[in-house]
Design a protein that fits this description.
73% helix, 3 helices, elongated, mainly alpha, 105 residues
Amino acid sequence: MQKQVPLKHYPRRGATVAWVVTIIFAVLILIPSMLGFVMKFMELVNLSQGEADGGFAITPVVNYLLASAGFFFLLLWSAINGMFNDLEHPKFTMLENEEMLDKEQ
């Protein structure tokens, strides 16, 4: 008898198409957004260097950038450690725990 392989082990064609579409949209959206952000940030830096009153505006922006960088590195860390490999597992674990607790009552 042949051993049946579960369906989740077969590569899906739809998954590769979804990845390609996601990457295309990411490039189309993120590159212009990053360019706009960098241009505006350079204007802010020029403003802070030009006038004495413009320097106060750069501190909150740097705070937001540092906080965003921290969240981005947390996202990278979680992706590298495989926390997005099986998104359904926590749901099933929670349902199993709930079923076990209901049986105890």
